[in-house]
Each structure stands twice: as C-alpha cells, then as structure tokens.
Amino acid sequence: GYVRYTGLYQKPPESLNQDPSYDNMLTNRLNFRLFPSDNATLGLEINNRLVYGNMAEDLRTARNMGMGGVGFNAIGTPYFDWERRWYDEKKTLIASEIDRFWLDASVGKLQLVAGRQRIAWGTCLVWNPVDIFNPSSPFDYDNEEKPGADAVRMIYYTGDVTKIEIAGAFPRDKDNPTFALQAKGNLFDYDFFGIAGR
Fold first, then answer.
1. What's the per-residue H, E or C state across the chain?
2. What are phi and psi of 11, to 5 degrees?
3. pTM of the model
4. 177, 167, 180, 153: which is closest to 76 by C-alpha?
5. For 115-136, how does the pLDDT look when each residue is reduced to its tens digit (9 = 90+)?
C-alpha cells in the first residue's frame, strides 16, 4: 500500500462572501494477497482516511445521501457496507473501508472472480463512458483506485488477446443490478470489442 497527504485550499468567489476553506486528508492504503494454490488468489485492500476540514462534512453528507463511503464523491453503493467510522465529529473524520475483497480462480482458459472488485472495461484520461460497473465522479481526484462493486465475473479467453466476459454487480438497491457481456477480438492488428447488458 502507501501513505499520502493531500492538502486542499478553496477560495470561494467574493460574491458569496464566504471564508476560504482549508482541508487536509491523510490516506493510508493496505493491500494484502494470499495465494492458496497456483490457480487461486485472495485479495483484500483497505482504505484508511483521516480528514480534517470542511471536507469531513461533505463526506458525512454524501454518506447520508447514500453516495458511498470514505471515497470522496464516490457514486453507487456496494451491497455490503464494509465501512467503519472510528471518529466522526464536526470537522474531523477517521474512517476505514474494505474497498476490495475478492477471490480469483482459474481453470485452463476460464477465470472466475467473485467479491468486491474493480471491473474496468476501458480506459480514458478523465471519464470512462463504458465504466458501467464502477462509475466514479471526475471530481474524485484523490482516489485513483476508484470504487469497487460487489460482483461476480466470468472470463473465457478465446485467444492471446481475445476474450468473452460476463459480469453481474449487485448494489444495495436490489432493484438495480447490472449485468453485461463483453466480447473482445483482434482483426487485422486492430482491437474490437462490443458490450451488451442491462
């Protein structure tokens, strides 16, 4: 993992007649791996944060609105609530969250991943329009790991750079699960992929 400090100074427009805001965030990430066999990996990743300033109130408000845990402006709420607030008073927040906990097992060309995980089906510099399982806010500048989803994923590798992947994510709002299929291929040295889902 790592330890990182982020300081933030916000100066509102003079027309709002508000005082400047100073925020401080200390982040500690712990990453653990267990390899019970050659074909299986168990992962556990914990995000710890100490926030001091107005941002503590912003995180408290976001949590009360069902917008995630210690990740600032995280969108979506995983099925399991694995956040613990150790101290939450006025301008101070100390919290921990298990934001990854998964089992990855493979047999031949078939791979199965179950648990809280990041499902990234594309890359982009600012915002990824095909990030349907772990959407995040472009304003979430301080969380490069992005949120995880409580999901099950099955991948079948049809070649060295081709695959078929099926995934299902189950949020706390049981009426809105996400299911999708991705097929990725390579033809004439170009990568092609298609996504279908609900």
1. CEEEEEEEEECCCHHHCCCCEEEEEEEEEEEEEEEEECCEEEEEEEEEEEEECHHHHHHHHHHHCCCCCCCCCECCCECCCCEEEEEEECCEEEEEEEEEEEEEEEECCEEEEEEEECCCCCCCCCCCCCCCCCCECCCCCCCCCCCCEEEEEEEEECCCCCEEEEEEECECCCCCCEEEEEEEEEECCEEEEEEEEC
2. -115, 110
3. 0.79
4. 177
5. 999 888 877 776 677 778 877 6
